[in-house]
Design a protein that fits this description.
It catalyses: AMP + ATP = 2 ADP; ATP + H2O = ADP + phosphate + H(+). By secondary structure, the protein is an alpha/beta fold. It has a single domain, classed as Rossmann fold, CATH 3.40.50. It is built from 7 helices and 7 strands. The strands form 2 sheets. A 5-stranded parallel β-sheet has the order 2-5-1-6-7, sandwiched between helices. Strands 3-4 form a two-stranded antiparallel ribbon. Strand 3 (about 40-45) and strand 4 form a beta hairpin. The longest helix has 12 residues, at about 105-115. The chain binds adenosine-5'-triphosphate. Adenosine-5'-triphosphate binds near residues 7, 73 and 142. Adenosine-5'-triphosphate binds near residues 10 and 12.
């Protein structure tokens, strides 16, 4: 079973999947961003955004026939059986990102992307609504989010997409 855990940076993918791993689940968890760095699966450095441009095809061949949980804001770009999209209210997302040291303009850019449902829309377009599981992490602790991800893995949660609406963040 291949579970992609995706979402705008700051929605808590790493934290929630690490909480899951701490429970000793027997599902392998792949932190894709670590794989990209450790196996040089990138094409160039984006100096302006202080990030690496991922080589999607190189990642695809590196992953091969993977199984378990694939965690990254890019995870929905790869074949998966179920796609978990973590969501977070843009204002809280901006605060989380700034609190961890991200530059304010980058935090704001991600908050606007979250308000525009960018990752959710890509996930639904690439996998279909029947494979997408939206989980709102706003004002919830990582353990509760990990519980919801575990429910998706166990097949105990119905697919849901588009129930979260953060567009008011974009209002002047
Ligand atoms: N449920 C939560 N409630 C409050 N803060 C959280 C929660 N989950 C994560 N955080 C905090 O938000 C920040 C971002 O979390 P995390 O790195 O797990 O997000 P991410 O989605 O993996 O981000 P990225 O895609 O950049 O790796 C961290 O400082 C983390 O401590």
């Amino acid at each position: 079973m291949r579970i992609a855990v995706t979402g705008t940076p700051g929605t808590g993918k790493t934290t929630a999947t690490e909480a899951l791993a701490d429970r000793g689940v027997d599902t392998p968890i792949i932190h894709l961003n670590d794989e990209i760095k450790s196996h040089d699966l990138w094409t160039e450095r984006d100096v302006d955004r202080d990030s690496l441009v991922t080589d999607i095809e190189a990642v695809r061949s590196h992953l091969g026939e993977w199984d378990g949980v694939l965690e990254s804001h890019l995870a929905h770009h790869f074949a998966a059986d179920r796609v978990v999209v973590l969501r977070c209210g843009p204002a809280e997302l901006e605060s989380r990102l700034e609190a961890r040291g991200d530059p304010p303009e980058k935090a704001r850019e991600n908050a606007e992307s979250e308000a525009l449902d960018v990752v959710l829309s890509e996930a639904v377009e690439e996998h279909g609504p029947e494979a997408v599981y939206e989980i709102d992490t706003t004002d919830r602790n990582p353990e509760a989010v990990a519980d919801d991800i575990a429910a998706v893995i166990a097949g105990e949660r119905e697919p849901s997409a588009g129930e979260v609406d953060f567009t008011e963040y974009l209002l002047p």
